[in-house]
Design goal:
The complex is a heterodimer.
Chain A (H helix, E strand, L loop, with lengths): L4 H33 L6 H5 L28 H11 L12 H4 L14 E2 L2 E2 L25 H10 L8 H9 L2 H10 L6 H14 L6 H6 L8 H12 L16 E3 L6 H5 L10 H4 L7 E3 L21 H13 L5 H12 L8 H6 L1
Antiparallel strand pairs in A: 1-2, 3-4
Chain B lengths: L1 H9 L2 H24 L4 H29 L7 H22 L5 H50 L5 H19 L6 H10 L5 H27 L2 H138 L5 H9 L2 H33 L6 E4 L1 H11 L1 H4 L9 E5 L6 E4 H22 L8 E9 L2 E8 L6 H6 L17 H12 L3 E7 L3 E9 L3
Parallel strand pairs in B: 2-4
Antiparallel strand pairs in B: 1-3, 4-5, 5-7, 6-7
Helix pairs in contact in B: 2-9, 3-4, 3-9, 4-5, 5-6, 5-8, 5-9, 6-7, 6-8, 7-8, 9-11, 11-12, 12-14, 14-16
Classes of the chains: A mainly alpha, B alpha+beta.
């Protein structure tokens, strides 16, 4: 039996095909892997990526402990719009009485303006933190029990004292809305799912940032952005050591600190509740008693009352209390005034989700 | 089950075997291929990159802590970002590793790293908090002490305290510079000894903070700088690399197997293709062979048919020539005596007339003949005789004339006296044939008489062998009559034979149609074959139509066709070229 040219060519074709198949599939498999391991989570880290972490002052030599809000990554316009709608949707609460926006009111600087949050007629434990610039916080909540904005959403949503919902209930309610159906279908492969709801709301929250405050403009080199008094306030802020904790992009929000470092705040205040134990409730460590996340001071003039217990009405009083309990310093009246005037320069234009998408 | 078994049994054994072998080879190939895909190079590089990223983040965090501790950094953003990045990278690595087959050492190491990094994160948070306070107190304490000392110096009663305060201040500063330079317990003792005014309380709080936090922060920094986590990460990297080496080894083995199986498959496929080709070639050869055999068989069959036809032709020719000679002879022999008879009948009539006229004259002039004459004339019934004699003669003349016609037909039929091919009036031939068959057409015990319809058109003379053509007419008409007779048992059947002639496309067409029993489709194919007959034994020769076909088609280049419906009748159509 002689081998003909035809046979050889058939063999050649088959082997080439096999080889190609092997190559193609190996390529296919690795690309599939890349997709599956793509990280879904967007943390505050990624929001910083466009700017260097250490921003230098206007003279270019002295590093400033506070940094301007960097240009954020472009967000998906449709997701921001969807998140906006969800953020304001009372169907997220079991009795349709609360939306996220019930306590995070943009007109009140992203808070509720109350000392202690009140939901459905009941006092919650703590002062409502602002949603503005929360994307820059390294943890969420006063006790920092969750890291991402996505994970934070479950807390108020499932809390029996707050929205008192369940995910199946929320999903079934949202699924009855034709507008949501279309919006989710066009943005998420799986349609209306808890993960998609979380991501949409978190994306909207990431748009709630306040760049371009007076102080940010000063940091970026605009000498005339702040007055002499405000500059003196900033110097005092650094000199007294406020800046030891309130530093970074968010002027806070990147570390924990005990309330009552130099003197016992709670002894003075009295009526210690479980929520006052702060981070100890999470870690169980005695050293974390009264430890809270250092809050951001951005837009601080809009978010009164202050402290985790909402016990302080004014910035001046806050500065005094911080001086006494945290710094072990008595801050004179003129310095307090200067510091307060500096704090007011941290107020940015109210976040406009729509314009943030474009920036 | 049964059906499947039937189906299987229907498959050819070699094909089934080949299909089974092929599919098992393919299955093996797929399995092996899958094995080689278990841990792709892409996955490997991704994991290596993730491990490197984790190590980089780990080192970055350590550097960040030292920089924060030594006040190079003025905020914790980078430390926070790196800590967060480390966690994301660890999470990504876990996801990547979870896609691999579980490996105990790696899982264990991963768990250790997670535990270590959770511990480290707590330490980092403690460090950040404590470092902030420590920095503030360390900065503020000397100023605070200096201010207090200045205030106290104005009053002499505090002089001993001032020395103590200065000592405390110095020791705290030394301690804050290097915690080996002073013992916190000693300083605390000194601070407790002093009886001081309340204005020192605040400064002493800061001193206490420094004494507490300096050591703690320092310890945290050294804990965070130690290599436990780094070592764990390195070990994980090494474990993973070992694991990958193992996997690669296994994969290589699988690859070799894959290659071997692929080669086997290819060779087997090639073999199958060869076998298939050979089979096809054999089939082609077989086909050619059987074609040749068929051709030869056909040729033989044709030859035999030809032979049969020739034989039939010969027989027919012999018969025809015998019949022709006989009929010619008979015709010739009868022709002469009939001519005398026919010719003399007129003379005989004349003589008879004369005789009868003479008798009439006798009767006139001798009205009373002798008795004997009278008796005789009564006996012979002379009056009747006179009348009948003429009739008799007329009848004889008619009969003779008919005999003459028959003879004429016979000679016309055989045409022995004529050259074989000449211009012939086909109508004459048809008429002669009908005449010869006259007695069969007439009604008899076999059936009622057959009505013959002649629809002759305008036909030119056709150049042909009249004797042969006439034979064809006789055959076809004879068959038609037989077909009609076969059907005549039916009631209310009027047997009809129609002969139509016309010219069409330079051909003289003769259509002989009967409404007899008809011919079945199967028989129509065979009626021109030699020795095919449907008639009872002894009645038909099976040659009539064969010879007719030969005569018309082969000898005269015409056409002979048949159209028939069983039970309704048959039409034979003869077409003869006119021009030739």
């Amino acid at each position: 039996m002689k081998w003909q040219r035809k046979d050889i060519s058939i063999l050649a074709v088959i082997s080439v095909l096999l080889f190609c198949a092997a190559l193609a599939s190996s390529g296919l498999f690795s690309s599939r892997l890349d997709q599956t391991t793509a990280n879904y989570r967007t943390s505050s880290v990624e929001l910083y990526q466009s700017s260097s972490v250490q921003t230098y002052g206007r003279d270019g030599t002295t590093p400033e402990p506070i940094e301007p809000i960097p240009k954020i990554k472009k967000l998906n316009t449709q997701k921001v719009a969807l998140g906006d709608r969800l953020f304001h949707d009372v169907r997220l609460s079991s009795d349709r009485s609360l939306s996220c926006a019930s306590c995070h009111i943009n007109a009140l600087g992203g808070t509720d303006g109350l000392p202690i949050a009140i939901a459905r007629g009941k006092r919650m434990g703590l002062n409502t933190p602002t949603v503005w610039n929360s994307a820059f916080n390294f943890r969420q909540h006063w006790d920092g029990r969750v890291e991402s904005l996505e994970a934070q959403i479950d807390e108020p949503l499932l809390n029996p004292n707050e929205m008192n919902s369940t995910w199946p209930e929320v999903i079934s309610r949202l699924s009855q809305d034709k507008g949501y159906q279309a919006a989710f279908r066009s943005l998420y492969a799986d349609g209306i799912r808890p993960d998609a709801v979380r991501e949409a709301i978190a994306t909207y929250e990431r748009a709630l940032v306040t760049p371009d405050s007076k102080f940010d403009r000063y940091l970026k080199g605009d000498h005339s952005a702040i007055t002499v008094q405000e500059k003196q306030g900033y110097d005092a802020f650094k000199r007294y050591g406020c800046v030891a904790c309130h530093q970074g992009v968010n002027v806070g929000g990147n570390m924990f600190q005990r309330l009552g470092v130099m003197e016992d705040y709670f002894l003075a205040r009295g009526n210690v509740q479980k929520v006052d134990l702060g981070r100890m409730n999470i870690t169980g460590r005695a050293r974390d008693r009264y430890v809270f996340k250092v809050p951001s001071l951005r837009n601080i003039e809009l978010t009164a009352p202050y402290l985790h217990d909402g016990s302080v009405e004014t910035l001046e009083e806050s500065v005094r209390i911080m001086g006494q309990y945290q710094l072990g310093r008595k801050i004179p009246q003129d310095d307090t005034a200067a510091i307060v005037s500096f704090l007011r320069t941290l107020t940015g234009p109210p976040p406009d989700a729509a314009s943030q998408q474009a920036s | 089950m049964k059906k499947i078994r039937q189906l299987l049994s229907r498959l050819e054994a070699p094909r089934l075997r080949a299909a089974l072998l092929l599919s098992s080879l393919l299955l093996l190939l797929t399995g092996l291929f899958w094995q080689t895909q278990v841990h792709s190079v892409g996955q490997h590089y991704q994991i290596i990159e993730q491990l490197q990223a984790i190590e980089r983040s780990h080192l970055a965090i350590k550097a960040d802590i030292l920089k924060s501790y030594s006040s190079v950094f003025h905020n914790y953003d980078k430390l926070t970002a790196d800590t967060s990045a480390f966690l994301s990278q660890l999470e990504a690595l876990e996801t990547s590793l979870s896609q691999l087959p579980p490996h105990f050492t790696i899982q264990e190491k991963l768990a250790e790293i997670e535990e270590q990094s959770a511990l480290r994160d707590l330490q980092i948070e403690d460090f950040k908090s404590e470092n902030a306070i420590l920095k503030n107190s360390t900065t503020y304490f000397p100023t605070a002490m200096a201010t207090i000392i200045d205030q106290l110096e104005t009053e002499n009663r505090f002089a001993p305290s001032i020395a103590l305060l200065q000592q405390v201040s110095q020791l705290v500063l030394m301690y804050s510079l290097d915690n080996a330079l002073a013992a916190p317990s000693d300083i605390r003792k000194l601070m407790a000894q002093a009886e001081l005014p309340p204005i020192t309380d605040n400064a002493f709080r800061h001193a206490a903070a420094i004494l507490r936090l300096q050591g703690e922060t320092h310890q945290l920094v050294s804990l965070l700088s130690d290599e436990t986590l780094g070592a764990a990460i390195n070990e994980l990297t090494l474990n993973y690399k070992d694991y990958y080496r193992e996997v690669t080894q296994t994969k290589n083995n699988y690859l070799i197997c894959l290659f071997v199986v692929a080669v086997a498959l290819v060779i087997y496929l090639g073999y199958l293709v060869r076998v298939e080709q050979n089979t096809r070639m054999l089939k082609a050869v077989n086909l050619r062979l059987s074609d040749a055999v068929n051709e030869q068989t056909q040729a033989l069959t044709d030859a035999i048919a030809q032979l049969k036809r020739s034989q039939a032709q010969l027989v027919q020719a012999e018969k025809l020539s015998g019949l022709g000679q006989l009929s010619a002879g008979v015709a010739h022999e009868i022709n002469n005596p009939i001519s005398f008879i026919y010719g003399n009948i007129d003379i005989n009539t004349d003589y008879t007339q004369d005789c009868l006229a003479l008798i009439s004259l006798y009767e006139k002039h001798y009205p009373k003949p002798a008795e004997e004459i009278q008796r005789f004339s009564q006996n012979i019934a002379l009056d009747f005789l006179k009348q009948d004699w003429q009739k008799l003669l007329d009848s004889m003349k008619a009969g003779t004339s008919r005999v003459q016609k028959i003879v004429e037909s016979l000679s016309n039929f055989s045409r022995l006296d004529e050259s074989r091919y000449k211009s012939v009036n086909l109508h004459e031939g048809l008429d002669s044939s009908l005449l010869l068959l006259n007695y069969q057409l007439a009604g008899s015990s076999e059936g009622s008489s057959i009505s013959v319809g002649k629809r002759y058109g305008q036909l030119p003379s056709v150049f042909c062998d009249a004797r042969a053509i006439n034979q064809v007419f006789i055959s076809l008409l004879g068959n038609a009559i037989d077909a009609l007779r076969e059907k005549s048992s039916e009631d209310s059947f009027s047997p009809t034979l129609t002969i139509a002639t016309y010219v069409e496309a330079a051909h003289a067409v003769v259509k002989i149609t009967d409404n007899g029993v008809g011919i079945s489709k199967a028989d129509q194919e065979k009626i021109f074959d030699p020795f095919f007959t449907t008639k009872p034994v002894g009645k038909g020769t099976g040659l009539g139509l064969t010879v007719s076909y030969q005569t018309i088609v082969e000898a005269h280049h015409g056409r002979l066709s048949v159209a028939s419906t069983l039970g309704e009748g048959t039409t034979f159509q003869i077409e003869l070229p006119i021009s030739s």
